[in-house]
Amino acid sequence: MERRLRELCTLLGENSTIMVDSSVDRLSPTKDVSSNASDTSYE
Predict the structure, then answer these.
(1) 17 CB contacts (<8 Å, ≥6 apart)?
(2) For residues 11 and 5, is the Cβ–Cβ distance under 8 A?
(3) Local confidence band at 43 (pLDDT 50, 70, 90 cut-offs)
(4) Do residues 4 and 17 make contact, with C-beta atoms less than 8 angstroms apart?
């Protein structure tokens, strides 16, 4: 995953790399928590 993201970022540009790295760090743990909470809520 990380390698693919970095390769894509390299193609898109350095600015994209910074934004993706930041979003990945912030969204990954958040998505896990929110998705688990959402699944429990819907059940």
Answers:
(1) 6, 9, 10
(2) no
(3) very low
(4) no
What proportions of the chain, in percent to the nearest 5, are helix, strand and coil? 95, 0, 5
Environment class of 17 (CB within 10 Å of its CB; exposed 0-12, middle 13-18, buried 19+):
middle
Helices and strands per DSSP (H, E), number in the chain: 2, 0
- CA dist., res. 24 & res. 22, Å (int): 5
Instruction: List, for residues 1-35, the tens digit of each pLDDT value.
Output: 889 888 877 777 765 555 555 556 655 555 555 55
